[in-house]
Amino acid sequence: MNLAHTTVLLWVWGSLQAFEIVEKENIFQRTPCPAFLMFDNAAYLADMSFELPCHCKPEEVSAVVWYYQKHLGSSHTKVLTDFDGRVLTEESQVHVGSDMLVRFSIRMFSLLVFRAQPEDSGLYFCGTRKGDYFYAYDVDIQSGEGMVATFKDQGQEPFADEHHGSLHIFTTFWEWTPCDRCGVRGEQWRIGLCYLRSPGLSPRYRKTLPEVVSCGSQAVPRKLRAQAREHTPELLVQSCVVPCEKKKVSEGVMAILSYVSKVGSRPWLPQVPIQFHQQRLGHGLIISCPGARPEHAVAWDKDREYFYRTQYLRGVNRSMRVFIDHGNHLHIRFTQLSDRGIYYCWRQGVRVAGLRLGVMSRGRYRASFSDPETRSAVELTLVGYLFITAVFVTIHLCRCCCYLFRCCPNFSP
């Protein structure tokens, strides 16, 4: 009887899969490809991951190939595929600074780019191995280095729109994130990217609103793009308070706790998974929240101390030793003994993980070029050596010149 049930379930599952594939093929049949290739404009913040769906393709094409060009008509084109459709890159395996050729994945004809960087801005084409294009995107990755934070609780207002003749530069904000904490005062924010309106844009680029594209779009002429370069992305922050959802404890856990409490004192059980880490005194540390993205609502606590962005956001104070960057990472510069404790991470209003930090005042530290502090020390040493060498050579050249001029014959009467 179990074998019969298993056979029926496998048959139903195979039928559902076939139905899903047929439905997707029907979608492509109902969506004809444009006769003239257009570019859909899309803008994202650096370190975000995005997906570009291939909205149309001919029926006979069973696998697509994605192409990337920095500029339209460029002779250098990157082919984003392994020609077998087996690219299975995971976001958790991607490191900052990796080349785009190891930061993408193709799934169900869609292109996924992980942790995008401003260098990834450009044109993306969906096509075949022969180089026939069906659909295209104009992607603008805006850097968060100069991002300006605005705190509504302090009465601050976002940047005003800029008008330069017919050119209108403004900020388009995304939706508010959920409250980053529950049960206590938290914060929520919204990301704003730079957009502009101008009548002189290229008609080949498809726009959400008439004559409106992101500031780094290929549709914007270079002259106008230079004027919009100073309008950086914005971050709007405000306070919020939401209650926590009650979680039901399983009967098995309750039975164990009741038994332990009868035998002796109840042990301390962490509410979230906690990782242990030892850090050497005086060295820097960067902590990431598991599964968090720049667009997520992420908060950090140390024991019972709350790190609010109004005080700990990067750029609020240049002399901060502990701060939160725009990618939701917690930075500790020059670790001190007082930094010992448990650092909790909130994601989308739920506490998800913790890090018990220990600080070692002694012990050997093996230097490695993978360590950013080691690379900085080597770079500073080389720069100092080159500077001293340049000063030494300059002094001796000056002495040689003075010696030669004194030895030259005097032709004056």
From TrEMBL:
Recorded coiled-coil stretches: none
Localization: Membrane
Main localization category: membrane
InterPro entries: FAM187A/B (IPR039311), Ig-like_dom (IPR007110), Ig-like_dom_sf (IPR036179), Ig-like_fold (IPR013783), Ig_V-set (IPR013106)
Alphabetic keyword roster: Glycoprotein, Membrane, Signal, Transmembrane, Transmembrane helix
The UniProt record lists the keyword Membrane: yes
UniProt signal peptide: 1-18
Pfam families, sorted: V-set (PF07686)
Domain of life: Eukaryota
Protein name: Ig-like V-type domain-containing protein FAM187A
Record gene name: FAM187A
